[in-house]
Design goal:
Blueprint (H helix, E strand, L loop, with lengths): L1 E3 L1 H32 L4 H5 L5 H4 L1 H22 L7 H28 L3 H31 L6 E3 L21
Antiparallel strand pairs: 1-2
Keywords: Membrane, Signal, Transmembrane, Transmembrane helix
Length: 177
C-alpha cells in the first residue's frame, strides 16, 4: 500500500515546476544566443526594436524568480516549515504565476512569427512557461489545502476480486459512543 500526503504532492508539483524551469531556461537561453549571433539581422532587430541584451529581460526575471521560489518551497516542505508560511508562499506563487503567464503570452506571439532554429527555441521557452504555470497552479492549490486543514491521503492497495468483502464494524467515536 502506498500513501501520498500533502507534503509529497507539494514536492511533486515543485519538481514539475523545476522541469518547466529547465525547458524555459533552455528556450530563452537559445533564443538569446541566436539573437546575439545575428543581432544585425532584421529578424532580431524588427521584433519590437529591442537590442538582444534588453529583449528578454522580463523573461529572465520570470525564469530566476521561478527557480528560487521553487527551491525555497522544496526546502520548506522537506523540513515541514510550510505550515506557518502558507499565505506568504501563496502570495509569492501568485506573483510568480502572473509573471510566468505574461511570459507565456509573449512567447506565444514569438513562436508564431519565427521559423527554423529560432522557432524551435521559442517553442521550447513557451512549453517551459506553460509547464511552470500548471505547476504553480498546483502548488497554490496544495498549499491552500494544507492551510485549510485538508489532509489528502491517497492510498493504493492491491485487492482481489475473488476475496469476499469483509464486513466492517463501526468503531466507537464521540458520535456513536
Amino acid at each position: 500500500m502506498a500513501s501520498i500526503n500533502n507534503k509529497t504532492l507539494l514536492i511533486i508539483a515543485c519538481i514539475l515546476a523545476l522541469i518547466g524551469w529547465i525547458v524555459a531556461l533552455a528556450g530563452v537561453a537559445r533564443t538569446t544566443d541566436l539573437c546575439n549571433k545575428h543581432e544585425k539581422d532584421n529578424q532580431w532587430r524588427g521584433w519590437g526594436g529591442y537590442d538582444c541584451d534588453k529583449a528578454w529581460r522580463y523573461d529572465w526575471w520570470g525564469i530566476w524568480f521561478t527557480f528560487f521560489l521553487t527551491i525555497v518551497l522544496i526546502i520548506m516542505a522537506w523540513f515541514d516549515k510550510v505550515g506557518g508560511w502558507v499565505s506568504t508562499l501563496q502570495a509569492f506563487c501568485a506573483a510568480c504565476l502572473s509573471v510566468t503567464m505574461i511570459d507565456t503570452h509573449n512567447w506565444i506571439g514569438i513562436s508564431e512569427s519565427w521559423n527554423g532554429d529560432s522557432e524551435d527555441a521559442a517553442n521550447a521557452a513557451l512549453a517551459g512557461f506553460i509547464i511552470i504555470c500548471i505547476a504553480l497552479f498546483l502548488i497554490i492549490i496544495f498549499l491552500g489545502m494544507g492551510g485549510a486543514g485538508v489532509n489528502v491521503n491517497v492510498s493504493i492497495s492491491k485487492s482481489s476480486k475473488t476475496s469476499p468483502e469483509k464486513e466492517s464494524k463501526p468503531t466507537k467515536s464521540v458520535d456513536n459512543a
